[in-house]
Write a structure and sequence with these properties.
Layout: H1 14-22, E1 34-38, H2 42-54, E2 58-62, H3 65-74, E3 79-83, H4 91-102, E4 107-112, H5 117-125, E5 130-133, H6 138-149
Parallel strand pairs: 1-2, 1-3, 3-4, 4-5
Length: about 150
């Protein structure tokens, strides 16, 4: 699989930014990558989902832990973007369930607004791949996702 490369710097030309955004993100099997956005805030979930699509992947959205568990019963995404303040069940309980069901095969990126040192430590212990702070830069998120599924 071809490396999508590093996104152009923010002062890159519009054409460079568009070319980067148009590269389709594919998983190791060569198929389009799938991302589960587990985010309790509606607006943030839509922003994350649109950023995922702009990065060339497909996305599904869950607004709480129960919905994420239902989606994970039928789908195995390549990456999950996990809101650290997720409830019903908590983000940490959901992460434990993901690790029991999928081991370390699913990449997990925690989305945080900061101030959750205890949750970040617990998530790191459970094998979270990386963290994204909000507000987030869509180009940076795209680069992170491309690296994870390469």
């Amino acid at each position: 699989m071809e490396d999508p490369g590093t996104p152009p710097y923010r002062d890159g030309t519009p054409e460079e930014l568009q070319q980067f955004a148009e590269r389709k993100m594919t998983n190791q099997a060569g198929f389009p990558a799938h991302v589960l956005v587990a985010e309790s805030d509606y607006v943030r979930s839509q922003l994350l989902s649109e950023a995922v699509k702009a990065a060339g992947a497909s996305s599904m959205v869950a607004y709480d832990g129960e919905e994420a568990i239902r989606l994970l019963a039928d789908h195995t995404p390549d990456v999950m973007l996990l809101d650290l303040s997720l409830t019903r069940p908590s983000s940490i309980e959901l992460l434990r369930a993901v690790r029991r069901a999928h081991g370390d095969d699913m990449q997990v990126v925690c989305v945080t607004r900061g101030g959750h040192a205890d949750l970040c430590a617990a998530a790191t212990h459970l094998g979270v791949t990386t963290f994204v702070n909000t507000p987030f830069d869509p180009t940076d998120l795209a680069a992170t996702l491309h690296k994870l599924v390469a």
